[in-house]
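User: I'll paste a sequence; please echo it back and then give the predicted structure.

Assistant: Echoing your sequence first, then the prediction.
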Amino acid sequence: NYPNPFNPTTIIPLEIPEESFVRASIYNILGQEVVILLEGIQSPGYKNLEWHGNNQFGQRVGSGIYFVRVHYNEKVFTKKMMLLNLKSNAMEYIFSKQPSQLLRRTIKTY
């Protein structure tokens, strides 16, 4: 998935080699299913699934580690993701800086 960590949306790319039943779900660190992103017969090709950090009821979930699990035929793929629910101003500041600028700023504050 990208970006990882993310706030609040991440893209999960899938490649489906042949028509088959596919199920893609998000699970929390306790192994509880949070939401189903995709379920059903899918045609071959590339797909980008988006997860906006919401549960099955449309409510925002908390920051933390989540897993996307994709079932395809007899195979299961799992990927770890990190959701960071930060205030938008903080995220804009962090992502507007180059890593070297962040390092210099951190050093100056200590």
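DSSP finds two helices and six strands in the chain. The first helix runs from residue 88 to 96.
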